Amino acid sequence: MEKPFYAEYIRERIRTVPDWPQPGIMFRDITPLLQDKKTFRVLVDVFVHRYMDQKLDYVAGVDARGFILGAVVAYELNLGFIPVRKKGKLPFDTVAEEYELEYGSATVEIHTDACTAGDRILLIDDLVATGGTMLAAAKLLDRIGAKVVETAAIVDLPELGGSKLIREQGIPLFTVCDFEGH
Questions:
Q1: Where residue 70 sits, what CATH number does that domain have?
Q2: Of 31, 119, 121, 151, which sits 20 to 30 A from 79 (CA to CA)?
Q3: Number of domains in the chain
Q4: Residues 125, 61: contact at Cβ < 8 Å?
């Protein structure tokens, strides 16, 4: 399948930082995408155009880089935004889900009143690696009765198996570009 014109444009502007946050990890840094006004506009427009005709109630963004893209996309789609935070960062009643990372484990939380049963959610993060973060966030939303219509990310790291795992759980996934190998 041929990649859309924008995929390589976005991919070329992602910085790779070797051995961060630990040796052997090739960190895909999206900050150059955000720093350039034209690239940031193209990136946001990719998501806005994809979802503008879908019936959605909220965009949920995963802590922390998913907040950046998710909040802007929510604003552009005239939707509310739900922050999916790391444990201990939300001030009200929460539900939590623990998950495994490629280099450890973590817990994410949302407020118990973040949305209501039947709400249709677009779930956004910057990157899909092992899929743990995205699946944990989707489980949280499901636990309070919401429906994750699609998950979305800028980058897919298919060799780590996360995108496959998300799709095997029956959750649609859209990514802008991918990085295979080093």
A1: 3.40.50.2020
A2: 31
A3: 1
A4: yes
